[in-house]
Amino acid sequence: xxxxxxxxxxxxxxxxxxxxxxxxxxxxxxxxxxxxxxxxxxxxxxxxxxxxxxxxxxxxxxxxxxxxxxxxxxxxxxxxxxxxxxxxxxxxxxxxxxxxxxxxxxxxxxxxxxxxxxxxxxxxxxxxxxxxxxxxxxxxxxxxxxxxxxxxxxxxxxxxxxxxxxxxxxxxxxxxxxxxxxxxxxxxxxxxxxxxxxxxxxxxxxxxxxxxxxxxxxxxxxxxxxxxxxxxxxxxxx
Length: 238
Hints:
By secondary structure, the protein is mostly helical. The chain has one domain. It has ten helices and no strands. The longest helix has 29 residues, at 52-80.
């Protein structure tokens, strides 16, 4: 890995925290009971014959629930190397028994995002919650797939291709300003990853050219962004 990519990797690690927004500081008995009621209600809907859009909304909420809880649980793992607190342990066990995908990823050693639920929501209604399910799917798969070399990824080629397509769709759709900046940033990084992973030279060249064009546009559009230096370092590493 080149020095430029090593620097870009460190910069990328620094901006990952920009996307984090915790819902709870800790899991109490009250938080746990609310989470269980919420999961039960959502699971009943997704397993019902409700309309596609209604089921998409429930899948979206399950994804949000997993994301909210995993942030708290991962802070425990970071600080102590294990989940602590009876309420947390019981909640994880009961949710897993219900079939909720709140599990530790073998690759990262951390609780994974709710991307499986966002993927189901997007499959049923891509624009559910004004595209927020699609954005969270893009976001979750991107950050969970990062490796020390930012141009490498844990995603198989098919999913990486889907990510690039999803980012392009989001950038053509209305988004809040911060989400649009982050989507543009992810599109650039995963475009460069796709250029490296593409199965043939023609597609690799097309991904590289599009990522470079998008990167230059990002630098011009977001001169004060904390992500700008990462984009410049990645473009300079190629």
